[in-house]
Amino acid sequence: MSDNTEFDYIIIGGGTAGALLSNRLSADKQKSVLLIEAGRRDDYHWIHIPVGYLYCIGNPRTDWLYNTEPDPGLNGRTLRYPRGKTLGGCSSINGMIYMRGQARDYEHWAQVTGDDAWRWDNVLSAFRRHEDHWRLDDPARADDAFKRLHGSKSTGGSGEWRVEKQRLRWDILDAFAQAATQAGVPATDDFNRGTNEGVGYFEVNQKSGWRWNTAKAFLRPTCYGRPNFEMWTNAQASKLIVETEANGVQRCTGVQVWTGQEMVTVKAHQEVILCAGAVNSPQLLQLSGIGPAGLLRQHGIDVVRDLPGVGSNLQDHLQIRAVYKVKNVPTLNVLASSLVGKAKIGLEYAFMRSGPMSMAPSQLGAFTRSSPEMAHPNIQYHVQPLSLDAFGEPLHSFPAFTASVCNLNPTSRGTVTIKHADFKAAPAIAPNYLSTDADRKVAADSLRVTRRICAQPALAKYSPEEWKPGPQYETDEDLARLAGDIATTIFHPVGTTRMGRDDDPMAVLDSHLRVRGIAGLRVVDAGAMPTITSGNTNSPTLMMAEMASQWIRNGQ
């Protein structure tokens, strides 16, 4: 930290969106940029080893350590709710899966915001601006359709966000993929063409076997060498400062920041940009008097702006983890059960940057329909050559794989609300999973799709045996209840500060991500999504930051 307390732009949160915005805004040498990150630098070795997510999630060094409120849809269970607390944010602890979502997601955003800027053909160029795809290392290897969607070395393939193939395969996953095609799911080598439908190995944000987080991509070394860029770590924003100008306009003019030793006030001459994520951004708005008036008064906070949508509209992907025992095929359960096996895993990574230590939490993916009447793929699989009772628990002693399936477009909505006026107190996170008939129906149907895939000939030689939830459960009611018992978050919270039309009373932001009624303040993170994307949410958040960077620079 320097003694400077005045900047043109203040960015709160050094995660996915904040890192890209820091890069783009500080490129203008005439503008000073301050990045504030509550966590530490990303110099923890487990951040960079792909399998290190096991040691980052649930670790106060890198995780906010949030938990949900008891959830009726999960039969009263609470869930661990990881959020990145380090440079790179969730990109430092997530599953590294590169996924844009489906074209229909963005067509819907354009409809609900009234802004064609969010249409698929328009956001595609924003994705491409920062993408560096392995297939474009040799453009001759990419077909014309791929080049149209992913750019080329001259137009979009030389960005900062590296996308690579995974560096391992598993016989059991290959067999699941073959079984899925036998069940009617087409094979694909690219989930990012606009529909996602198909089965194949995920592409990942890695570089030569190392995790590629947004701090590496956008902050280091570019921003660190710019004299107009400053970064504070271990510094938590506690309150936004909003002043009323002579013309009656309310404007965000700065931020109060707790450095661990003192409270410092910093001033923004142009904008404060909130990139703290779908949990922390609504929390900070509420602490600053921007949110539902009744909630704010309940905690003794003066109402600066009554915005009832702040903290509402929480959406997440709930994964239902079906476990199948298998025979005559290696899985990680067995491979990692001995010291010899663990030594082999370590040596393979040390010398080849491949094998289980290089793998994302989920390696194989599939997008399909939960029932034939669905007009589009509405469920996603994350398939893993392992099984365990819950994340962070030991692997099972028997060989098995897990086929986790999630509803891509849940209709359930939850909330994020402060529980205390103290900025250090965790908010109440209530996802309200499986609270609608539609979501319970998709949950039951998706388990039946899993069973249909696992009954195909390609898997028969491994004798798959449904261990969880158990083949004895067959009715919609049974399967929905069992989904509540075994399902868990896949870490995709969005929507808590959603954008929308001017006449939408629950829209927190306009279509350019500006907070309604407060000049000089934007929210640029997954909370701004009006509806969740059909897939993993990290790269769509980067796209939103890319879009926002142009609007900010153009004063829009």
Descriptive notes:
The protein has helices at 16-26, 45-48, 53-56, 103-113, 120-130, 144-150, 171-182, 214-219, 277-287, 293-298, 332-335, 339-352, 437-454, 457-460, 476-486, 538-553; strands spanning 6-12, 33-36, 66-67, 80-81, 131-133, 161-163, 198-201, 206-207, 210-211, 229-232, 236-244, 250-258, 263-274, 290-291, 305-306, 318-325, 364-368, 379-384, 400-407, 415-417, 428-430, 465-468, 487-489, 521-523. The strands form 7 sheets. Strands 1, 2, 10, 11, 12, 13 and 24 form a 7-stranded mixed β-sheet that branches. Strands 7, 16, 17, 18, 19, 22 and 23 form a 7-stranded antiparallel β-sheet that branches. Strands 3-4 form a two-stranded antiparallel ribbon. The longest helix is centred in the C-terminal third of the chain and has 18 residues, at 437-454. It has 2 domains: 6-50 and 56-95 and 215-312 and 494-553, 3-Layer(bba) Sandwich (FAD/NAD(P)-binding domain), CATH 3.50.50.60; 167-201 and 318-407 and 432-489, Cholesterol Oxidase, domain 2 (2-Layer Sandwich), CATH 3.30.410.40. It is an alpha/beta fold and 556 residues long.
Do you know the CATH architecture of the largest domain? 3-Layer(bba) Sandwich
C-alpha geometry: globular
Main sheet specs: 7 strands, mixed
CATH class of the largest domain: Alpha Beta
Share of residues in strands: 15-25%
Helix content estimate: 25-40%
- Give the count of structural domains: 2
- Poorly predicted runs are none
